[in-house]
Amino acid sequence: MINNQKIVVVLPAYNAEKTLEKTFNEIPFDIVDEVILVDDHSTDRTTDFARKLGIKNILRHKQNKGYGANQKSCYNAALELNADIVIMLHPDYQYTPKLIHSMAFLIANDVYKVVLGSRILGKGALNGGMPLYKYVANRWLTLFQNILMNQKLAEYHTGYRAFSKSILQKINFEKNSDDFIFDNQLLAQICMMNYEIAEITCPTKYFEEASSINFSRSVKYGIGVIEVSIRYFLHRNFKVKSLIFLND
User: What is the CATH number of domain 7-245?
Assistant: First the structure.
């Protein structure tokens, strides 16, 4: 805990047996109270490895539901455990768990409600081996979103995120996609509610075992990002209602 606030780390997992132990061993348990792993019906031994590591809170989907659906299960499980701060960390060891302290303290001290670990602040992405086409796409999509959504984020596409309980309780993330665009929709919902989002520099690693969507899925994601941005712009400025931005 920090300031009597319970900290829960959620691990949305899919075929993470080769990287789970490295990730888990770097989690700072001096402040982290609980870890939740949601296995999206992996074809490897992710769940078995999680049990061997002593992770108590393990959920396994009966079928593969998608990255967004995995996060929905993660956040719902964290709220059921009465988490005050929820940190989403990919178990593929692409992001370092050593930043959990910094991210959690910003929320625990009531500085921000949302903190992102940004690969684009500094040179973490390129130094870590991010493919050039992904880097260029990231920069272009971020510029596009910042213009349409009137924000100044370094990137919207990181998978390393920390949230206060109040954010997850106020936003109806169940309305979002079960696919990769969930991440982008969630940030758009947060911006729509006028919360300021903090970013800290995050080194990253791209290697064979780290999860990464292929080119065709990246294109689909990019189109989804553009759609989310346009829907945001129309909803906020022209009252053209979009379901994900309605909390009813």
Answer: 3.90.550.10
